[in-house]
Design a protein that fits this description.
Blueprint: H1 3-29, H2 33-54, H3 61-64, H4 66-82, H5 90-114, H6 119-140, H7 146-149, H8 154-169, H9 174-195
Helix pairs in contact: 1-2, 1-4, 1-5, 2-4, 2-6, 5-6, 5-8, 5-9, 6-8, 8-9
Length: 214
């Protein structure tokens, strides 16, 4: 993928996850300004940092490009100043989470491909990049991560990453592959939320119990 496009998508995903993490802090943890901005930044930057470590792309982009820190901190501050005006935070949290998930699945996969990783490895890197920030966010607010429990979280990321790889193998433009993968990931994630769809549970396992924030 072209470097400028990769950076733009990466920053967009960073901003979406920063807003998501900060909104989660307001709703689930009721933190002060330091906590809100910190949780937003951690949510935004964790996935990309994990990706760069896995790809041996060190130091991670987060620590060499000021734009990532600025975008993440800016998203947290925006939510701190204006997030309290939202009567219900579920919808914006879910939409931003799906957006960040989709964009990071695409950028993680694309960066792995650019560095010569095989198709399967690139898909796994994309999925890990996508779920990393949200997983750490959930751990910090003391709830079971989405990726382990509900609403097709890891599966959309895997599907979006796979689309990027497959479309690229057919020689399509990298921008088209990125848009197609991100769009499909976003749609699957939102459908899962809307209809309460989940990945299969083991036979004999207890029925799904709604989360505290459902």
């Amino acid at each position: 993928m072209d470097a400028p496009l990769l950076v733009v998508l990466d920053l967009a995903g960073t901003f979406a996850f920063a807003l998501n993490g900060a909104l989660t802090a307001l709703r689930a943890a009721r933190l002060d300004i330091v906590g809100v901005v910190a949780l937003g930044m951690i949510t935004a930057l964790a996935g990309g940092t994990i990706r760069d470590v896995l790809l041996d792309s060190l130091p991670p982009a987060t620590f060499v490009d000021w734009r990532y820190l600025a975008v993440a901190a800016g998203g947290g501050l925006i939510v701190f100043m204006f997030g309290h005006r939202l009567d219900r935070l579920n919808t914006p949290i879910n939409v931003l989470d799906a957006a960040g998930l989709s964009l990071f699945a695409v950028t993680g996969t694309s960066k792995a491909i650019d560095l010569g990783f095989g198709p399967a490895q690139a898909v796994l890197v994309g999925a890990i990049t996508a779920v990393g920030g949200g997983t750490l966010r959930d751990v910090l607010v003391r709830r079971i991560p989405f990726v382990l429990t509900s609403e097709l979280y890891a599966i959309p990321a895997l599907v979006g990453a796979t689309v990027v790889v497959v479309v690229g193998l057919f020689g399509a433009a990298t921008s088209f592959a990125a848009v197609a993968g991100a769009a499909l990931c976003f749609v699957i994630r939102m459908v899962g939320i809307r209809f309460g769809l989940n990945a299969p549970y083991p036979l004999g396992a207890p029925g799904h119990r709604p989360r505290d924030d459902d």
